Amino acid sequence: MKWFEGSIPEAIALAKSKQQLFLVFIEGNDELSKSMGTTYEDSTVSSKLQGSKCVAIKLQAGSEPCQQFSQIYPVVVVPSSFFIGCNGIPLEVIAGSVEPPELLNRIEKLFQPTPVNDNGNLPSEVPLEPAHSAPTTAAAATADTSSTEAVSSASLEERVERAKRLVEERRLQKMKEEEEAVKQSELERRRVAREMQLAQQAREDQERREWARKRAQEKEEERRHRERIQAQIAQDRADRAERYQQEKNQEEQRKREREAQRLLEQQQRAAQEAAARSQVARIQFRLPDGSSTAHTFDADATLQDLHNYVVETVQPSFSSFTLSTTFPRREFTQEQYRSTLRELELAPSAVILVVPVSTPCSVAVPAALNNSGASLLKLLWSLLAPFGVIWSLFVGLIFGSPDPPASASISDSGSAGAGGASQRGEASASFAAQEPQAAQGGARRRRSAQQPSGEGMYQRDGNVYRFSNQRFSDEDDDTNTWNGNSTQQM
């Protein structure tokens, strides 16, 4: 197919100058456009169009020439073929793609001549020769035929006039048909334009709805993203706060531990310095029956001196015993008997438990028990010592307090639960009242053994104990009054 290479105005001018049909083919990039292009490239179709003297031009859909053409002839469908006459009226519009035979059929209908009615010509029964041969026959006619010729001349004029009228009517009818065709073409153009406008408006509405939907979707995604970011920020803040609180708690815990360690070290240093500075060691001995005895030793004295003092002065009811402390729990061995009290951290004061090795009753214990159960018995007596103190207090509160076995006997229910520092504090407190009588403890213990039961150097009034020098008198001390010179008054 040979297409015109110039512009649209040039093609229109060429078609008008040659009084030829103007073909405009608008194609796109889809399959229908390719199929219609193949139809135009068919040899039969191309030869028919070129033989009919048709000016054909091809436009690309969406191009500037196509947009200019669409302003005059609306393009509804791509591909489209417009067959336009010399007067600018579209004679045929083919939308979409058609096969070559159908296109040939439509082209043949376009190029068929308009049938002219025979009424437009002179009637066949009217002979026209007499009009041309009248002068020749008139010269040869006779006088008899003159009237006949006059009648024939009159009827000929009538026929000519009638033929003119018919030709004029035919011309007017043709003009009317052309006007009607123009009117129908204008109506069709308006209808196509209105449909195109409605289609464009529907497309714009669809685009606006699609834009609104996408915008709403974008806003929703932005909102969700913002919420996720806010939740992440809140979670990060909570995590940071939790980590900060944990670090703060850990730092406070470490501070407390360091402070406790520092205080412990200070206490240990203070105890060590006090032990190093102290020249004496105040030792309180506690027996399983709850009684206690205090004595002051030199800080450089050995543990063997304490053992000898217990044997010679305290004189417990058992002969075999060990020395130990409760807090910290320590049981001194024979190797430690050569160590000084300062080295054993028993200065300046300490509490020593006198724990018997064997049971108080004289029962024959097998050698296996002596060997394997010695440590168990020591542990048992150290555990039972607090209960012995509690029992002695309970008996003293109910049945009265018996004479103490020593001059410095003191009942202490907290001996088993006090620590090393508490033991030193208790020993120091007890030494304030016991130290003047510590040297005469043995003699007083022997004198108390000779006293009658229920009488002693103390008198109990509830939980208050008072010194008394009427141990061998049966008089009621509550009936007597005393002044500063010990003079009895009635």
Automatic annotation (TrEMBL):
Residues 276-354 form the UBX domain. Keywords: Unfolded protein response. One of its GO terms (cellular component) is endoplasmic reticulum membrane. Residues 131-155, 406-415, 423-442 have a biased composition (Low complexity). Residues 114-156, 217-271, 406-490 are annotated as: Disordered. Its main location: endoplasmic reticulum. It comes from the Eukaryota. Residues 480-490 have a biased composition (Polar residues). PROSITE patterns: UBX. GO terms for biological process: ERAD pathway; response to unfolded protein. The keyword RNA-binding does not apply. It is a peripheral membrane protein. SUPFAM superfamilies: Thioredoxin-like, Ubiquitin-like. Residues 236-262 have a biased composition (Basic and acidic residues). It is found in: Endoplasmic reticulum membrane. Involved in endoplasmic reticulum-associated protein degradation (ERAD). Acts as a platform to recruit both UBQLN1 and VCP to the ER during ERAD. Directly interacts with VCP. Interacts with UBQLN1. Forms a complex with VCP and UBQLN1. PANTHER family: UBX DOMAIN-CONTAINING PROTEIN 4. This is UBX domain-containing protein 4.
